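Per reviewer request, we include the raw input and output of the structure prediction for the construct analysed in the revised manuscript.
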Amino acid sequence: MDLRALGHSPEEFERELLSNLYYQRGTTIESASRRDVYEALAVTVRDRLAARRARTAAAHYQANPRWVYYLSAEYMLGRQLWQNLLYTGTEDLARSVRADFDEIAELDVEPGLGNGGLGRLAACLLDSLATLDVPAVGYGIRYDLGIFRQTFVDGAQVELPDDWAFEGNPWEFRAPDDREVVGFYGTVFPTDGPTRRRRWEPAETVLGEPSHMLVPGYGTATVNIVRLWRARAARGSFDLTRFARGEYADAVQEVVRSENISKVLYPDDSTESGRELRLKQQYFLVSCSLRDIIRRFRLRNSDWGVFADKTTIQLNDTHPVLAIPELIRILVDEYELDWDRAWDITRRTFGYTCHTLLPEALETWPVAMLGRLLPRHLEIIYAINEDFLRELEQRYPGDADRVRHMSLIQEEPERRIRMAHLAVVGAHAVNGVAELHSRLLAETTLRDFAELWPAKFHNVTNGITPRRFLRIANPSLSDLITEALGSESWLTDLEQLKGLEPFADDPGFRERWRQIKRHNKTRLGTDPDALTDVIIKRFHEYKRQMLKLLHVITMYQRIRDGVTQPPRTVVFSGKAAPGYWAAKEVIRLINAVAGVVNADPLVAPYLTVLFPPDYNVTLAELIIPAADLSEQISLAGKEASGTGNMKLTLNGALTIGTLDGANIEIRDRVGAENFFLFGLDAAQAAELQHGNYQPRGYYERDAELHGAIDAIATGAFSRGDTGAFAGLLATLLGRDDYLTLADYRSYVDTQDLVNKAWLDPDEWSRMSVLNTARSGFFSADRTVTEYCQRIWHTDPVSVP
């Protein structure tokens, strides 16, 4: 039962708000700041979730179910207030008691816990797990400063600290009593027990202090949690003697060293110390999380024989793969299970989601570094590899090349641990995240493993939550859909959107659809009459923001030459990793081009280029509803899935894209006639890359491409400085690893078809409605259902 009675009338809600203002913030209504009111409002809403959380915990304890534990280095949760108002049904109550509600709501800050699609997928899956009543906990790191706050100085990306929790985080519950001790370095000693049992004495320890945030389900009483670990120095780390001598920096050296582990997401790994900090971060996450998982298991269970029946742990990419040797270490060294039993439990417990086909993104760690930092874990990895190689030699006698390629240890040019190989060997299931990605994963990247264990490999196409990316982000369109379908039940059964298809032929409905899109463009601050063309994603060469920029320059030069086009606003947004020179150069060039294009009065009626900085979920919720055209232009065979493409399609944007990632499945479902396809397919791209690809030949043969590149080279966008972007152009004309120039002509010609289609607004609206109507498959609810059926084998638990 609820320990507090929470009211449902405006008067009761206001009374609770005032109570929290007095007793949580220690102030009065007369002297309260807007920050005080925001904090009190957040706690008032949070209380409703906390009551549901208590009921959820009781139901889960009673059921003793099979739990899903999701380990991820990042979560892009988005702002919490709007979601929690929706999920508690209190938005109208909040508005009724505060006339300045919208201003107060703007104080809600997005947690800086993620960066790209990996983190947003994790957040969407947690939302769906709760909505589907699946007992689950997400585990991550509570980064003090996120990845970084992006700003531009002279067009260049500059990284500033994202101090997202500087004024506190009212959605968070700290649990300092549940701290875990994490060890590093040290010595491994033999024991009197079995051969493979050891005693590790770390030379350095830090504390992992947990907090958790509530993850409510929509339309259900279930509230799960995401548990986040923050690194703290052990007691006594502050050196008071040195401080008294005035050696202030030295006095806190150990504290700083410890707490750096959770300071930022993905520390720059261009230095040895940065790489070691990343490895520390990964072990810190899995060590704390596994101890917490085991603690939760032992609340109701004592027999290790049922651990894998009660526990499934999903590894979100390679960042948490050290969980495999860590679980073995805990079981063998601490709980004294024999090796074979511990290995069997481990392999039945873990699932692994691979998010990439790029070799450089499949993490490897130097043997020397891992052995220095985690000596016991290196021994365990060697033991796993010893058993695995013996199995390979029995299965493929005499095939030394295959054994060498599949080994967990890369021998040359430097001995390194292959984390993806460790994940595949140590997990019972491996999945890709789109049909093409999963096929290529099994046929190329992990081919030998898929031949050895074909039943281990699965596809689970990614999905997104319609609650955040349509209901919250695009309330006007959501209301229209609900009106057309007759209820809001589509929010938990997205396939109901198929009921919109007949409305695509209704002129009045199409007109209302267009007006909503115009309203969203006005909200974004762009021309409501212009085609809003968006490319919003993490900056990487394979995502080919450079291809979009070459098209922008081509449009600019055509307009300058007197060839007009329908008005178009091109919106770029996204961040580049701090050490990624090429991606940062593309950002600098985009801003340089935008400066010239937007200042040209001849071009202004036809073309505008925008680059809002610091892309995150909050900004996505503003851009996505305004988009007419979704740019999904990665080189075919390189994008794992994409989820931005799904969000944009759901909101009625038409896609221009290659046959890459989930683009294929989107095109199949919305209809080829409602999708702008261009470029090489994955097989053609691979053939060209492995052949004698000469990017300069494309440049020399195509006058418009030649003109666009020459404009950059001659300083047209850099105040005459011909060397400003010379390095970027040399890479493009010399290697062009992602075939930007090879796909340029097909892309530009397809963009001309986009212009032609835009000239018929009624037909464009019909296509837009059909894109939304046919996007139901891409719900994260469907994704989680498939995981539950194929990989996790878990059942929902109803919460009263």
